[in-house]
Amino acid sequence: MLGSDLVLSGSLVKDPRLDYVALGHIHKAQDLNEGFHPPVVYPGSIERVDFGEARDEKFFVIAEVEHGKTLVDWRKLDQIRSFIDCSVELLSQENVSSTLENALPGKNKIKDAYLRLTITYPREWESLIDDQALRKYAADAFEFHIIRRPQIETRIRLPENQAVSSLSPLELLDIYWKAGHFNENEQETLNKLAMEILTNNTQTNLE
């Protein structure tokens, strides 16, 4: 069983000589033979376990099993932990903290929930995001995750009246670093590495 699941054919579990088939492991509640005999039931998990189940309803099952006739009573579970998935794209540098807090639900809904906030923003606005303030706002959550998705300008613009063929590899790299919003220290380090690689490559070709 290690490394793979046991797969049973549908005809095997839907055999009418059976009166109830109880299946496990899959978290989504479902009857694979709904409306027919026998019920082939995944009751599902009684708690949500990740954000993939954020919108799933959860149940437990009471079955009255009789030969040739089984009644299944699905009991919905209401008092289970919420998974709340929020996302926001920053379009302005103004009032960033309040914009992020407004993307989250009210504190009464956050309490005891699994909470995730995905933030999309231009890379150069990184310092405007105050993690500490967000965590303070979401302090009553059972668990809180912040997912950062910095965006960089992918289109590289060459100086006017210049073609790619007129620029050296290092000049092209310099334009790329600036387009990617690398800071000055990063640019200097990357240029040194590029110089070493180009120099070594030139020496090898000469040999």
Mind explaining what this structure looks like?
It is a single chain. With 207 residues, the chain is an alpha/beta fold. It has three domains: 10-77, no CATH class; 83-151, no CATH class; 164-206. It contains six helices and eight strands; from the N terminus they run αββββββααβαβαα. It has helices spanning 10-13, 96-102, 107-110, 131-137, 169-179, 184-206, and strands at residues 21-22, 30-31, 40-42, 58-66, 69-77, 83-89, 114-122, 143-151. A hairpin with an 8-residue loop joins strand 2 and strand 3. The radius of gyration is 29 Å and the shape is elongated. The mean pLDDT is 87.
Outline the fold blueprint.
Layout: H1 10-13, E1 21-22, E2 30-31, E3 40-42, E4 58-66, E5 69-77, E6 83-89, H2 96-102, H3 107-110, E7 114-122, H4 131-137, E8 143-151, H5 169-179, H6 184-206
The stretches of 5 or more residues where confidence is low (pLDDT under 50) are none
Kindly report the average pLDDT value.
87
Strand content: 15-25%
Alpha-carbon distance between the termini? 58 Å
Rg, Å, rounded: 29 Å
H-E string: HEEEEEEHHEHEHH
Instruction: Tell me the count of domains.
Output: 3
